Task: inverse folding
């Protein structure tokens, strides 16, 4: 009461002074002084519980946060809804109208979900177009005429108008190509190389075989071949060709390049045994258009104490065009968006900023990731952790995090919680094409790793559609991402 009486006397004194402007200012000041104790008395009511409870970083507190996130996620399964929105436009080849539709859809979705600072950051991308003609016809007096299921490889040039016709040279290794190089001139080199089924790590098997898709055309051209065919990269034996990027060597001629379905690869191999002189007529109409301006899409939950410190959750918005790009990588985009939504809906107020970035052009060169890393908008920001989801929408089984063992240590506190959510292991690793530039700048890489045994059944082919993704498995990815990001966003976690 003494404070109130003092202020009343002070106001009365101010109004008696000459000079009304000064009186008014003094009066306002006096009312502020009168109200200040009341204002500061109520400040704790409106302060963030997250900031008040900073000392309660414990397994119990983390388990409580994880339980809240899990309950919301498994009840609602919004990740699959987001997946359906992204895949509704079809395949999203870099620079295509479908890719730009996806940019607009996800930008509007993040706005509707109430994320902070939702924006599009421009990225210049190349634009390769598949074209209407993709045909391959076996011509043989012994086996007859047989159509083959093929697709052009990304970056390939077209055949001459009307196609080309040549004999076929089958090889299964670089060594075999080198040994038969004198026979390659004027022929179509057929790389019949399967993914190694004895490897448990499907991505390791893919990496071994993918070199023939990526480098094969130039290697064949070096020895005078007129075109190249590559066996599709999958463990599955089906009738669908799988596309993907190939890269020309600047020192070699550019020849047309296509992938052949697994079953037709086996058929062609058998037909060559019957008729080594059979010919193949190949026609492709793929071509490049002028570069286009596309965009990365960003949204975030801004940190309450350290907004400049970023925990990034990323995935790539573009895809190949034969299917809907569901597992690769609409699933990653959906999981990232859902992770932010779960954090927001759970009432968690992170101390560091948690940002979702949907990168453009991972499949065709990684320009989106590079543009993001060097953007003027990054000034003053520090990306502590960059997590990329690009291994399909399957059941999460592990966490790869950090380049060194000591970078994994902060997660030991949350490991029991993650195991309760189904993760079986944690180890060093993680990363991806899009976040590689951030990792080079010092960010700690990470990835939630799903079971990948079926991933290459769908990868880069017409089977990669939304129906191939299980809603609950995808939601579990989002839940685990949300729990990890929430934990890492706490200022007490030393990164």
Result:
């Amino acid at each position: 009461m003494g404070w109130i009486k003092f202020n009343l006397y002070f106001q009365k004194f101010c109004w008696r002074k000459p000079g009304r402007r000064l009186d008014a200012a003094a009066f306002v000041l006096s009312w502020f002084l009168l109200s200040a104790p009341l204002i500061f008395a109520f400040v704790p009511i409106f302060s963030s519980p997250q900031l008040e409870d900073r000392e309660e970083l414990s397994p119990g507190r983390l388990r409580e946060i994880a339980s809240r996130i899990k309950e919301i996620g498994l009840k609602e399964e919004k990740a699959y809804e987001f997946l359906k929105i992204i895949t509704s436009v079809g395949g999203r080849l870099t620079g295509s109208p479908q890719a730009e539709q996806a940019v607009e859809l996800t930008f509007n979705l993040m706005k509707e979900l109430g994320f902070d600072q939702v924006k599009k950051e421009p990225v210049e991308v190349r634009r390769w177009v598949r074209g209407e003609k993709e045909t391959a016809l076996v011509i043989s007096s012994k086996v007859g005429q047989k159509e083959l299921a093929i697709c052009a490889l990304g970056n390939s040039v077209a055949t001459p108008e009307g196609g080309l016709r040549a004999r076929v040279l089958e090889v299964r290794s670089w060594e075999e190509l080198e040994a038969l190089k004198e026979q390659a001139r004027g022929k179509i080199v057929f790389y019949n190389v399967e993914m190694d089924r004895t490897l448990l790590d499907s991505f390791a098997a893919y990496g071994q075989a993918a070199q023939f898709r990526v480098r094969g055309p130039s290697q064949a051209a070096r020895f005078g071949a007129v075109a190249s065919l590559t066996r599709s990269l999958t463990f599955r034996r089906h009738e669908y060709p799988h596309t993907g990027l190939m890269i020309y060597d600047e020192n070699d001629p550019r020849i047309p390049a296509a992938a052949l379905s697994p079953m037709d690869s086996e058929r062609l191999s058998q037909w060559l045994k019957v008729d080594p002189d059979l010919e193949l007529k190949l026609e492709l109409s793929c071509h490049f258009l002028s570069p286009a301006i596309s965009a990365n899409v960003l949204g975030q939950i801004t940190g309450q104490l350290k907004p400049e410190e970023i925990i990034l959750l990323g995935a790539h918005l573009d895809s190949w065009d034969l299917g809907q790009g569901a597992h690769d990588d609409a699933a990653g985009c959906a999981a990232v968006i859902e992770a932010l939504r779960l954090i927001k809906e759970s009432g968690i107020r992170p101390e560091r900023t948690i940002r979702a970035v949907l990168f453009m052009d991972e499949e065709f060169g990684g320009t989106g990731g590079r543009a993001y890393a060097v953007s003027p908008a990054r000034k003053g920001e520090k990306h502590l952790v960059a997590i990329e989801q690009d291994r399909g929408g399957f059941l999460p089984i592990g966490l790869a995090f950090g380049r060194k063992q000591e970078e994994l240590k902060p997660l030991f506190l949350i490991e029991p919680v993650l195991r309760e959510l189904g993760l079986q292991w944690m180890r060093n690793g993680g990363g991806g094409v899009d976040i590689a530039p951030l990792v080079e700048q010092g960010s700690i890489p990470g990835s939630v790793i799903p079971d990948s045994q079926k991933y290459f059944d769908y990868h880069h082919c017409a089977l990669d559609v939304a129906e191939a993704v299980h809603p609950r498995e995808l939601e579990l990815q989002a839940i685990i991402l949300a729990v990890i990001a929430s934990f890492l966003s706490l200022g007490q976690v030393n990164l």
Q: What stands out?
A: The radius of gyration is 29 Å. The first strand starts at residue 116 and ends at 129. Residues 1-53 have pLDDT under 50 and may be disordered. Residues 249 and 394 are 35 Å apart (CA to CA).
